[in-house]
């Protein structure tokens, strides 16, 4: 078998509203190799204004835009966000290798902005840069989808930048009940962003989160407000002016769940603290959180109740968390994974 026949092209993207530049990238990959692996990033996330579609829906949009022959040559590989570049690269390579075996890999991409820096992180793969593919940005297309006076007006606004099949897909998808919820949440976020539009520098927010473990369970809340209303999250919130991050974490924990122990017990239970600062981790903007991991060992779990920003508080079995990944707000599942080792 020739080396060309054993080669695979790889395209990596989130495909959160397939547009013409992404479709052009996939077709360029199909010209370079017999088979193309399309890696769909941000897989398994809860629906949000930034990630309105499941990874399967993203794959469906790509398939619908391809010919029958092209579809037969494409494989879709979902990969979760790791918020750790080295780990994410390793996950992508492992997932691709599982599907392609020992085939030669050509990574196909184009350098549109800082989000394209990942192209330099796969030194074992040949890189094919297709060059500029126009100024099309998924974020702007999603904004248009959420702000149109009507669905048809929104679709008309993006029609020149997306395949016709994407318009048809979104037209059907928008009949599902979560579309209006996402529109409402996007508008609330936009209003929040507008408050800081006149600031001399883009704001950077500092928050705290608490991972509290007792035996085989961990304490979670269900968010009572946007963003992420109704999603699972860790107890936490914004740092106050006269607090350390530890003091803030303990205060937010008590305010949102009613969980309280003697200060000496909490200090003894603190096993680790870690900063999560990926620029895209929060829909609010640039938010740096300090997560605190408390392990109280085997004991009777105290009664808790959701209050303040939490509509509900409950103890959840750690073994159940992997199956709940798509119910978590922002990167809170990944924070739990960092401390509890939920994924491979």
Q: What does this protein structure show overall?
A:
With 344 residues, the protein is of the alpha/beta class. It has two domains: 8-179, HUPs (Rossmann fold, 3-Layer(aba) Sandwich); 204-340, Nucleoside Triphosphate Pyrophosphohydrolase (Alpha-Beta Complex), CATH 3.90.79.10. Helices cover 35% and strands 22% of the residues. The chain has helices at 20-32, 55-65, 68-72, 85-100, 138-147, 151-158, 164-173, 178-195, 245-257, 263-269, 332-340; strands spanning 8-13, 35-40, 74-78, 105-109, 126-129, 204-214, 217-223, 232-233, 236-238, 270-276, 286-295, 310-317. The strands form two sheets. Strands 6, 7, 8, 9, 10, 11 and 12 form a seven-stranded mixed sheet that branches. Helix 2 runs antiparallel to helix 7 (164-173), helix 5 runs antiparallel to helix 6 and helix 5 (138-147) packs across helix 8. The longest helix is centred in the middle third of the chain and has 18 residues, at 178-195. It starts with 7 loop residues before the first strand and ends with a helix. The model has no long low-confidence stretch (mean pLDDT 93).
């Amino acid at each position: 078998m020739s080396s060309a026949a054993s080669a695979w092209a790889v395209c990596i993207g989130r495909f959160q509203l397939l547009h013409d530049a992404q479709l052009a990238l996939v077709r360029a990959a199909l010209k370079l190799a017999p088979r193309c692996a399309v890696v769909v990033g941000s897989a398994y996330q809860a629906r949000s204004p930034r990630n309105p579609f499941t990874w399967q829906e993203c794959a469906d949009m790509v398939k619908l835009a391809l010919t029958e022959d092209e579809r037969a040559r494409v494989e879709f590989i979902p990969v979760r966000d790791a918020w750790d570049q080295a780990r994410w690269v390793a996950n992508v390579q492992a997932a691709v290798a599982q599907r392609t075996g020992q085939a030669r890999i050509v990574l196909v991409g184009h350098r549109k902005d800082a989000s394209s820096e990942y192209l330099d992180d796969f030194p074992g793969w040949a890189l094919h840069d297709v060059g500029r593919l126009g100024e099309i940005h998924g974020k702007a297309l999603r904004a248009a989808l959420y702000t149109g006076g009507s669905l048809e007006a929104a679709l008309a606004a993006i029609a020149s930048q997306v395949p016709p099949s994407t318009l048809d897909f979104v037209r059907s998808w928008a009949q599902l009940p979560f579309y209006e919820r996402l529109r409402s949440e996007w508008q609330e976020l936009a209003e929040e962003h507008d408050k800081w539009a006149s600031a001399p520098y883009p704001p950077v927010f500092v928050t705290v989160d608490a991972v509290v473990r007792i035996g085989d369970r961990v304490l979670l809340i269900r968010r009572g407000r946007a963003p992420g209303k109704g999603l699972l999250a860790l107890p936490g919130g914004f740092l106050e002016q006269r607090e350390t991050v530890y003091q803030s974490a303990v205060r937010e924990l008590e305010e949102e769940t009613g969980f309280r122990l003697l200060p000496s017990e909490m200090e003894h239970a603190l096993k680790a603290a870690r900063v999560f600062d990926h620029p895209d981790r929060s829909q609010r903007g640039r938010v740096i959180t300090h997560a605190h991991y408390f392990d109280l060992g085997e004991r009777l779990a105290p009664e808790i109740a959701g209050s303040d920003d939490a509509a509900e508080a409950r103890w959840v079995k750690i073994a159940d968390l992997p199956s709940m990944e798509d119910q978590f707000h922002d990167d809170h599942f990944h924070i739990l994974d960092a401390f509890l080792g939920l994924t491979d």
